[in-house]
Design goal:
CATH superfamily: Gcn5-related N-acetyltransferase (GNAT)
Number of strands: 7
Largest sheet: 7 strands, mixed
Distance between the termini: 25 Å
Strand content: 35-45%
Number of helices: 4
Order of helices and strands: EHHEEEHEHEE
CATH topology: Aminopeptidase
Helix content: 25-40%
């Protein structure tokens, strides 16, 4: 489990990118967009976007990014959550997800009423889908062939009321 969950800093960018690569979420040449997104958050240019890290023994072992879903009514999207492979299955991902939910609930239903997460339908993400179900997310939608011919987008949904 994580010892600390805190907002990401500029010093965390490379570690977050490496976690994304190590977990096969992104290729090395695909993580460059993290720089601008995290820097915008750190500099306050994107105040509604939130980057978090989880630390264990002062080592960053996980990261998460959530923000309001554009053109929606108080809906938020957990766009990224990933735990370093050497630290998986220790409760860190669950603790980070719970933290995000708590932060959104603290904003009140006038600001946050639903959290969604999107993932792939491939076998590689079967544990990810099981993780969301374990944390009481409902599979709300499936967009066929979104990521490729045999790779659907699976959208999970959870109410933040209560």
């Amino acid at each position: 489990m994580a010892d600390t969950i805190r907002p990401a800093t500029a010093a965390d960018i490379d570690t977050i990118k490496q976690i994304a690569i190590d977990t096969n979420m992104f290729e090395t040449d695909e993580v460059g967009f993290f720089d601008e997104m995290i820097t915008g958050f750190i500099e306050g240019a994107m105040p509604e976007n939130h980057w978090l890290v989880a630390e264990h023994n002062s080592e960053v072992v996980a990261g998460a990014y959530y923000a309001p879903e554009p053109f929606s009514d108080r809906m938020w999207n957990l766009y990224f959550i990933s735990v370093a492979p050497h630290h998986q299955s220790r409760g860190t991902g669950g603790a980070l997800l719970d933290y995000v939910e708590q932060q959104l609930r603290a904003r009140g239903t006038d600001t946050a009423r639903v959290l969604i997460v999107e993932t792939s339908s491939t076998e590689q993400y079967s544990r990810t889908r099981a993780f969301y179900r374990q944390h009481h997310y409902d599979e709300e939608a499936r967009i066929r062939q979104f990521y490729g011919p045999d790779d659907d987008k699976v959208v999970f949904w959870k109410s933040l009321d209560g």
